[in-house]
Design a protein that fits this description.
The chain is an alpha/beta fold. 39% of the residues lie in helices and 14% in strands. It starts with a strand and ends with a helix.
Length: 319
């Protein structure tokens, strides 16, 4: 049995998916699933307050990056004391989690103990499956990794096959950040296509791009789905005024047809691990409710209600 530290939430879920959750000895501040990981020592922390609106968070992050600094810190002494055999981190996004360079700096002066550093960098579903196998190799359970990746692919391909038989293919805008606006990229355009939709913004295999309100309004999507990175449903709702206050919001086709949705981007879409299968299920439920019901409504996603938003009664969404 190896001693494993995971410094990114998706990798923690991968380790558990491989049946090696009991090997974990440390985690990042964002690792919160499954529930038992909460008892593990926390080895990272953000260098800025993470509360507030999406605009305020964006400004804090940009200010740190403008100074050439890392967004997160690693507790190098605590990490060393845990003496891990394997450290799983990422070099996909400097804003999403502690970076590879930070981890390398934390372990560069270790002597007498060498940890295997596995850095995940998925830009597509295929690369998510590859990362699962790379983590499995590092943990010495390659067969389990093959089985996990294959089972997730089979599960998702079955949904895609069923969705492909639907006559309607709604035009979809996935929004990954509210202010400033960012469309969802990487693996998420693939999920929209598999769920039976047409993705309007963001390109599969490429980082999530900034977008303008004018672009969104001009495209006038059939469906708008918000899934801000790092935000759950309640936090997104509290910040939804950054959308509703924009000119022409109440004229959008998606608003008039009741097709604006709020998802838990933090728990699902933004974590490139096993729960991307649940993320696809959520999209399928939203886009084709007459064909799919996996039971995620109310937990993984809700429909936006203009009356509740106007009255400020966010609790009514969450009941």
């Amino acid at each position: 049995m190896k001693r494993v530290v995971s410094l990114i939430a998706s990798a923690t879920e991968i380790v558990h998916g491989l049946g090696c959750g009991g090997w974990l000895v440390g985690r990042s501040h964002e690792c919160d699933y499954p529930q038992e990981v909460a008892a593990l020592p926390v080895l990272t922390a953000p260098k800025f307050p993470v509360d507030g609106t999406s605009y305020e968070i964006d400004q804090r992050v940009k200010a740190i990056l403008a100074e050439g600094l890392a967004v997160y810190r690693v507790d190098a002494e605590a990490l060393r004391a845990l003496a891990p055999d394997v450290i799983v981190t990422q070099d996909q996004c400097e804003v999403c989690a502690v970076s590879l360079s930070d981890v390398q700096a934390a372990v560069c002066d270790w002597t007498g103990h060498k940890a295997d550093i596995v850095s995940c960098r998925p830009d597509s579903l295929a690369e998510v499956w590859s990362d699962i196998r790379r983590v499995g190799d590092a943990l010495g359970v390659p067969a389990r990794a093959d089985a996990l990746a294959a089972s997730l692919q089979a599960r998702m391909n079955a949904i895609a096959a069923a969705a492909s038989r639907r006559r309607a293919r709604p035009r979809v805008a996935l929004i990954e950040w509210l202010d400033p606006l960012m469309a969802a990229g990487n693996w998420m355009p693939e999920l929209v296509n598999m769920a039976g939709g047409i993705n309007l913004f963001g390109e599969a295999g490429k980082h999530s791009p900034w977008m303008t309100w004018e672009e969104l309004r001009a495209a006038d999507p059939d469906v708008i789905i918000t899934l801000p990175c790092g935000m759950d449903i309640e936090a997104t709702l509290h910040d939804f005024g950054s959308l509703t206050a924009r000119p022409g919001f109440f004229e959008l086709k998606a608003l008039r047809s009741g097709s604006i949705y709020v998802c838990d981007g933090n728990q699902y879409f933004n974590r490139p691990g096993p729960r991307l299968a649940e993320s696809l299920e959520i999209l399928a439920e939203i886009l084709h409710p007459d064909a799919f019901d996996f039971g995620h409504r109310g937990r993984g996603w809700i429909a936006f209600d203009t009356h509740a938003q106007a009255t400020g009664d966010v609790s009514s969404y969450l009941s």
